[in-house]
Amino acid sequence: MVDGETYTMNSSSYSSPPAYHVGQAVRVVYDKANPSKARIDNFWELWLLPIIFISIAVLFGLVFNIYMGVSLFQRMRAR
Q: What is the Cα–Cα distance from 9 to 23, expressed in whole angstroms?
């Protein structure tokens, strides 16, 4: 509730069985300037997508660096 207004939100992640029951009180984080964009204050709700994207970026970085290292090693060995 912000300034006496009540907001309803749905989680952006789903699970089976559900993590929460309909009407259950949960902690949320929100921007005071835009309270309609609230998120449930839970590790997976807040960090799942960043963890996935960072993991993919690290994987691509490792593959690229290994490829470049092998390529450089082969060129140096050929000389």
A: 11
